[in-house]
Each structure stands twice: as structure tokens, then as C-alpha cells.
């Protein structure tokens, strides 16, 4: 039996609220937000999952309950195994989660990125600022209600804005987005050249 | 002051120590043959920009090999790569610190139009914040394309009314 499964069993035995989470690869658990700190500490200090390899977020949908989930991937550098820990945010409007920076200093920038993209605040984070977008950007780009092209916003530098009279715009999509949705579309019909050109592989060039 | 230069092909026995020319021609000849680039390398186009500076393509043949990382010493900003909104202020400030006369080459699809990044984070063409002189297509462009852009920029500079601009400045 892999040690990761042992660790998950031990966690589930100690915290009644911890449940199994559907997973195709590594053992995974759902943890209630109030227990999260203790569970992560137990995984690190008792079960040997000494490395935090990722913190990310999920926005399920506008109006979903719970709307936001934070996902942690912890790794054991001795046994080379992962455990995935997911925790739902209690508040859908102002999502918040306890910070893991006290356990792994490496959580600092991961949590800043989750805050930047999803607007999930991490209580106890030493320096919770945006990390990819600029300070003062008003939106959270990876939320489901944020359009792919973006929303108009002010650029960070007021002097440059005064000089150039420009700002962030909703990007022109030019017939896009050129992505394949679930269920599949024929990319030969969907990609830009099929829309821009009068001939393609499927519509041969007429004899001139 | 014009000094005699035996490398230039004029006949000093006939013309003496004097060359007659137009101020525009002299100024533009000097400017266009020593355009020092400000390499604004922001993405993969910067790799091609490095190739242009290296021996195989050798931008030194066109007098633009002196990459200057101080904007105060640079003449032409080569915007090579994806300009994000967050970076755009820095790009504009570096351009503002360059001394006139100054020019801009938008290298590649991203710098010219935003390229494939139809996104909330990417400036949709560096011409939204800078006056671009030459656009180079490609993703990334071949080094020859950038050399061609430099030659086109030199031709453009040679058409400028430099003397009257200097006098009116």
C-alpha cells in the first residue's frame, strides 16, 4: 500500500470532516476550511509531505455553492508521492482561506497568484498583493464571470496614461476564440484561416 | 568642420579640400549609419534579435551592432516581444528617456498587434503607446526580416528634413 494512502487514512481518522475526493491520479481529500491548517501541518510534520508543490484555486460557476475552492498539492521528497488537499471557501462573495505561509514559506507567491486571479484572500499572509496584474487592477481574471478578452481598465502609471491617452481594453477577438470546446469541433472549420481565406484544404482553390 | 578623408572617393586635385553637399544629406547619412539599438527584448523575438547581433547575420554590417542598455545612448528602440499592460509603462518610460532623434521598430506579431494574445493582460500593439516607424511581421520574424526593417528605417531616416527640424527646434 502506498504511504500516501496511509497518510490519507490517518488524516481521515483524526478529522471527521475530511472526506475522500474523486481523483484520477494521486490520493485526494476534501478538508473543511477550519481544519485546513491542522491537516496541512499534520501532513507536513507527521506524514512527511515536506514540500508544497502547488496552490491553486477553482471558480466553479457564478452562483454555485460553494463557488471557490483552494487546492494544495503536497509532495514527499523521501517517498516521492503526492497528496491533493482541497478546501471550499465558506463565503462566496468574499472568499477567504487561512494562509499556509507559516508552514511552507514557498506558499507566499502561490497564494498571491491565487489572490490575483480569483480574489481569494489568505488570512495571515504576510504580503498579500497582486503578483501578475498590477496593483490597482480592479478585476480577477480567472473568475468565471470575467470575459476572455478582458475588461477596460486604467493602466498603472498615471503619467504614462496622461501622455498616451490609452488604457487596457477588451481585446478584439477577430472571430475567435479559437479553442475546441468539450464535445469537439472541427478545427479546420474553426481556425482563423478557414474564416479569412476563400480557400483551404477542404475547399480547394478554384482553377484560375 | 569638414576634413579631408582619403577613403572617400572624391578627387582632391580638382575639388580642393572642399565637399559641397546638403545639410540634410550629411546629417541623415551620419544618423542612418550608426543607429544604436535599445534592445527591448520581452519574449521569444529577443532570441532572434540576439541572432541578428551575432556573427551569422551580423547587424554590424548596417552600423547597428551597438546594443545600448542605457536609453540615453540609444537611437532606435527594437520592441522584440509581447508587451503586457504591466510592462507597457516601463516601455513608455524607457522610450521617454531616449534622446531625440529616436525611432521605434515593432518586431513581430505581438509587438505590432498583440499577436495571438487576444487577452486581458497584453497590450494590443505597442503603437498604442509609442510612435512606431517600422513593423516587422512574423512570429518570430527571421533575422533577415529584422535586417530588412533596419534598412527600411535607414531609408526613412534619409528622407527626413533633419536640418530644418534642428533649426526649428
Please give a structural write-up.
The complex is a heterodimer of chains A (208) and B (169). Chain A has 208 residues and is of the alpha/beta class. Chain A is built from six helices and seven strands; from the N terminus they run αββαββββαβααα. Chain A has helices at 3-14, 33-45, 107-118, 158-164, 187-190, 192-196, and strands at residues 19-20, 28-30, 51-59, 68-76, 81-88, 96-98, 121-123. In chain A, the strands form two sheets. Chain A has a five-stranded mixed beta sheet with strand order 1-2-5-4-3. A two-stranded parallel sheet of chain A has the order 6-7. Chain A is globular. Helices cover 38% and strands 11% of the residues of chain B. A four-stranded parallel beta sheet of chain B has the order 1-2-3-4. In chain B, helix 5 (108-113) links the parallel strand 3 (103-107) and strand 4. The longest helix of chain B is centred in the last third of the chain and has 16 residues, at 143-158.
